[in-house]
TrEMBL record:
SUPFAM superfamilies associated with the record: Protein kinase-like (PK-like)
Positions of the Aminoglycoside phosphotransferase domain: 94-303
UniProt-listed PANTHER family: AMINOGLYCOSIDE PHOSPHOTRANSFERASE DOMAIN-CONTAINING PROTEIN-RELATED, AMINOGLYCOSIDE PHOSPHOTRANSFERASE-RELATED-RELATED
Skewed-composition ranges (Low complexity): 1-10
Species assigned in the record: Streptomyces griseicoloratus
Annotated protein name in UniProt: Aminoglycoside phosphotransferase family protein
Record Pfam families: APH
Length: 380
């Protein structure tokens, strides 16, 4: 049995549109991005409690049968787990809050055992197990129990609040929160776990080619990014230029606790080109131009190769977000009832409109990053 953390994912929340201004990814004079409204998905944590199972979890019907199967898989590896509440449920997984003795725990059980999703949770289990032997320089949840075969993970529930409730925050988080989160990410980036512990989750060449085939990158984008990758490889030499990254460093995956930031959701952890986590933060801080400028300065402080690696990461992250929200917008146009990343609430704009506004901002940010990439290629 191993020790682990809080929720591996979180329930969606409703989105409020607000105008956002962005800073440039390149250190040349920071240009504000076009005003736009952001929308995202929120993380929500249930309050730890000792309520009995009855009245909190509905085990009736077909969905109840799935929950009973999930609870049984948890009890096989953690018999003392007493489920209290369903924190989040999707077609792929279910997240249960419960108690283990006097502590609160979160159990993640996979419902869709397709190879891609099974590989992700197994990768996350490997990460938590490795943290038991080799502690990273940031706070992470303790692993309590894990079963890779049945894709079940039980982790300690950490106290704290998310640094942001949405994937793309609607307004700039407090400066202290951004500073603490950025400090944790920089410490993690300077850490080098033992060789062979983690692999490289992202094949940069294949991902760039795929986005080009899908029409998300132009022919010039393809050539420019390939030139930067070639230059990075030459600068790195035989040793390679890898940096250990969280892989999904959203503010919603960082819990702000009195003892310091806690990073959760490690299913994408591994070796990336330097600055992947910084690029992720830059992409979601559209309403915090000062924070974006600080991130750009940190990325460029490592020299031209580190700057180029950050720009390659930024282009891929922004393109991924554009693809995600284009799919969401198309789905909302075909659905009779708008499908939002989170539940709507009084006063909220229609989810489809929120997604379109966010998509517009992402396209503006991508144009900004594209100009920075072309400038970087021109300096070579």
């Amino acid at each position: 049995m191993y020790a682990a953390s809080s929720s591996v994912s979180a329930p969606p929340r409703s989105l409020h549109p607000r105008p956002a201004a962005g800073g440039g990814p390149y250190l040349a004079p920071a240009r504000p991005a076009a005003p736009v409204l952001g929308a995202g998905r929120a993380r929500r944590g249930a309050v730890p409690g000792t309520q009995p199972l009855s009245g909190r979890i509905d085990l009736s019907g077909a969905q109840g049968a799935q929950l009973r199967t999930a609870i049984a898989s948890v009890h096989r590896i953690c018999p003392e787990f007493a489920p209290v509440q369903v924190l989040r449920r999707s077609g792929r997984s279910v997240l249960l809050v419960g108690t283990t003795g006097r502590s609160t725990a979160v159990a993640k059980c996979l419902l869709d055992h397709s190879p891609a999703w099974a590989e992700r949770i197994r990768h996350e289990i490997v990460a938590y197990r490795s943290f038991v032997r080799h502690r990273p320089p940031v706070r992470v949840p303790r692993l309590i129990a894990a079963d890779p075969d049945n894709c079940t993970l039980v982790i300690e529930r950490m106290p704290g609040r998310p640094a942001a409730l949405q994937r793309h925050p609607l307004e700039a988080p407090p400066r202290a929160d951004i500073r603490a989160a950025l400090g944790a990410i920089c410490r993690l980036g300077a850490w080098r776990p033992p060789a062979g512990t983690f692999d490289a989750p992202l094949d940069y060449g294949a991902r760039i080619s795929r986005y080009h085939e899908l029409g998300l990158l132009t022919d010039r984008d393809l050539g420019d990014l390939q030139k930067l990758l070639h230059g990075i490889a030459q600068a790195a030499g035989r040793q390679g230029m890898g940096q250990f990254c969280h892989g999904d460093a959203l503010l919603s995956n960082i819990l702000m606790s009195p003892a310091g930031p806690v990073l959760v959701d490690w299913e994408h952890a591994g070796w990336y080109l330097p600055g992947y986590d910084l690029a992720t933060l830059w992409a979601v801080l559209g309403d915090a131009p000062a924070a974006r400028r600080q991130i750009s300065q940190i990325a460029q402080s490592g020299g031209p190769a580190a700057r180029d690696a950050f720009l390659v990461n930024l282009m891929l992250v922004l393109t991924r977000e554009i693809r995600t929200y284009e799919t969401a917008v198309q789905r909302s146009m075909h659905d009779t009832a708008p499908a939002a990343p989170g539940a709507a609430h009084p006063g909220a704009a229609p989810s489809g409109e929120e997604q379109r506004l966010l998509l517009r901002r992402l396209h503006d940010d991508c144009q900004l990053a594209r100009r920075a990439v072309r400038a970087a290629v021109g300096t070579r």
